[in-house]
Every structure is written in C-alpha cells, then in structure tokens.
Design goal:
alpha/beta, TIM Barrel, 11 helices, binds flavin mononucleotide
Length: 367
C-alpha cells in the first residue's frame, strides 16, 4: 500500500522559525533580475510558490557584494539599498501568501566568469586561486581579501534580515567561494585558513559566528553543503562520518541552525554500511534540523509508487519512509517546483495525476 504523505505536511521548526510543513523550495538561479534587482515578475514567481503550499522558500543565489561575487548576468544582489528595497517586496509578498522565505547568499568565487561580470579586470576569489585542482588561475586570497569577504557575507545576512526575510542560507556547496575553502583539493593553504578540517572550515565558521553576533539568536542561519563538486560530481569531500563530523562541528559551534545537504538523488546513501543519506548523517552527527534534496518528483516512478503501482527507490513512498524514520526534517524540491508552482498542494491533496513533468523549456520562463 502507498504511504500517506502526512509527514510532509506536519509542522516543523528551524530555531525559532515555525514552518507549516516540511517542503522547501530549493534555491534556483533564474537570471531574471536585470540591474541585479528582483522585479515584480520575480516577486510574483516566489509568491505563487507560497500560494501553492511550499512551507519554506529559499531564494535563488543572491550575491553578497557587487564586485567579486558576480559572474552571471541578471543575478540579483543584496548589497545595495535599491536591491534591498526590491527584495523587501518579494519577502512581503511571500508572507502575505502564508509562506516563509530566506535568501541564499552566493559568492561565485572560482566559478565566477569575469568576462560576464561588471568587473572583468578583478581576479576571481578562491581559497588557493584554483578552479581545477593543481592549476592556479589567480593568486590565493590575501588575508585582507578574506576579511573583506567575511564581512560582506555578514553584511548581506544582516541586510537579509532587515529586508524582512525569515532566515538566511550561506551557499557553502557546489565549488563556489565558501566551498573552495572546505575541499582539500581546492584549498592548498598552509596558514590558519587551510590544512585540516578545522582550518578549512574556519572561513565559513567565521562568517557564521560574526553573523550570529549581529542578527541575534532568533534569526535562523542555514548553510548548504555538498560532497560533490562541479569539477567532479563523484567527489566525496568527507570520506567518512568521522570526517563529516569534523566538517560540521565548527559550524554548529559558530551558531548554524540547520544543514541543507545537497545531493543529486535523495535516496542514495552517503557512506557504506548505512542507508542514511547526506542530510541523514548531518542530523545524526549534530542533532540540528537537516534539509535533504535531489530528484524529488522528477521521474514517473516518483508518483507511480504513490498510486500503489510500483515501489522504487526514487519514489514518494521512499521519501515518506525516510522522513517518518526521522532521517531528516525537511525536503527541498527544485525542478519539480520550478515547473509547477502548485506541486506541494497537488501532493498534499493526492492530485498526482495533475503534476506536470519537468521540461527544460520551463527554464526560459518565470511562471
Ligand atoms: C535552474 C537551476 C538553478 C540552480 N541554482 C542553484 C543556486 O542558485 N543555488 C544552489 O544552491 N543550487 C542551485 N541549483 C540546485 C538546486 O537547488 C537543487 O539542489 C537541484 O536542482 C536538485 O534538486 P531537484 O532534483 O529537485 O531539481 C539549481 C538547480 C537548477 C535546476
């Protein structure tokens, strides 16, 4: 028999933030913000997902500064008063629709494309100046640049709170600036910002610690992490649960409230000998709420299993089972929600025959 989906629609909390259900809209860059400010169409796009029943919306990646973070046209920022005012309208719209929303703060670091940025003359920032391990493209970040980058993240998180959002997420995944410090292949530093896990985690922990001091205890701070890297989808940054603990513990001590564990398929185990996925391990090791993600609702199998036809690893049954077992607290949904703003409500009401399959054409519109 298919499992009822009730667990997805039970309330949940991240720190002081109360959420009506456990469905999170995954952060997705859309590049629909000319002038680096979200306009009315962007506000309506997020509001529609709140109206469609998503409990927590995480924004597309938002640049924390105007010079080194940006290498993708029409991606929004939060570092100017104009951008902050524009984001306030987005936050207000989501609130009015009964949703909760956080900004994802994204410094593109070594994956910034200077040629597409407003400052092509400025070298890209990363821990050791490498994008492809072993082939430095730029100087390693100086102590002063590291200090500037930390303060810009802190200021962006403070601006996020001031703009009326419910939380902020630091993008520490997918090989961008923060992740370039985490991964030993891209962090070859021998000073206090490199070396062992403690050194490689220091940059992120410092951002979290200083932000916490500014925003207070009641404003949840999330961090997104990934074992996989853009340079290598098969990369495993922490090879064992013991290593993962060394990665996560300094972030907990610095004041992080939840881990958003990016993987490409939610049902895949993180380590041998256990079927816990990446988020499952983060929760087990830290006791903090964990968000999982990865190919939810993308295949026919996902809802076919829900209707009792088959039981497959990618199925809604499997997701429900993992969440009922308490593996992780929340599930982020990316492409299925990009395609269909009413995805959450359709799942809740069992209207699975109305779900729309993801098509790449959806990327061209903001519906
Ligand atoms: C168009 C698109 C843009 C994305 N942009 C971001 C981003 O800005 N930040 C981020 O952390 N992940 C980004 N991702 C990854 C998603 O958040 C998510 O982890 C991924 O799509 C897997 O979830 P899904 O299988 O439900 O789509 C993006 C994914 C897509 C499809």
């Amino acid at each position: 028999m298919p499992k009822p989906v009730d667990i997805l629609f039970t309330p949940c909390a991240i720190g002081d933030l109360k959420l009506k259900n456990r469905i999170v809209m995954a952060p997705m860059t859309r590049s629909f913000s000319p002038g680096h400010k979200p306009g009315e169409e962007v506000a309506a796009y997020y509001r529609r997902r709140a109206e469609g029943g998503v409990g927590l919306i995480l924004s597309e990646g938002v640049h924390p500064n105007t010079v080194t973070a940006d290498g993708t046209p029409d991606v929004p920022e939060i570092a100017t008063n104009e951008a902050k005012a524009a984001w306030k309208k987005v936050a207000d719209g989501v609130r009015e629709a009964g949703g909760r929303m956080g900004l994802q703060l994204w410094h593109e670091g070594p994956y910034r494309n200077p040629a597409k940025s407003r400052h092509p003359e400025v070298p890209s920032w990363s821990a050791s100046g490498v994008k492809v391990p072993g082939k430095p493209l730029w100087p390693a970040m100086s102590e002063a640049e590291i200090e500037t980058a930390i303060e810009e993240f802190v200021a962006a998180a403070v601006a996020t709170k001031e703009a009326g959002f419910d939380c902020a997420e630091f993008h520490g995944a997918h090989s961008y600036l923060i992740d370039s410090f985490f991964w030993s292949e891209t962090n070859q530093r021998t000073d206090k910002w490199g070396g062992d896990w403690k050194g490689r985690t220091r940059f992120a922990a410092e951002i979290v610690r200083r932000t916490r001091a500014k925003v207070g205890a009641g404003f949840p701070l999330l961090i997104r992490l990934s074992q996989w890297k853009q340079q290598d989808f098969a990369a495993v940054a922490a090879a064992t649960p013991q290593e993962l603990e060394k990665w996560l513990t300094p972030l907990v001590e610095a004041g992080i409230d939840a881990f958003h564990c990016s993987q490409r398929r939610f049902w895949e185990p993180a380590f041998g000998g256990s079927d816990l996925n990446f988020a499952g391990w983060a929760r087990k090791l830290t006791g903090k709420p964990a968000i999982s993600v990865g190919s939810v609702g993308l295949s026919g199998e996902f809802t076919a299993a829900y209707s009792g036809e088959i039981s497959a690893p990618a199925s809604l049954d499997r997701l429900v089972e993992m969440m009922e077992r308490g593996d992780f607290d929340l599930i982020a949904v990316g492409r299925a929600l990009l395609q269909d703003p009413d995805w959450a409500e359709k799942i809740r009401a069992g209207r699975t025959q109305e779900l729309k399959a993801f098509s790449r054409d959806a990327l061209a519109t903001l519906y």
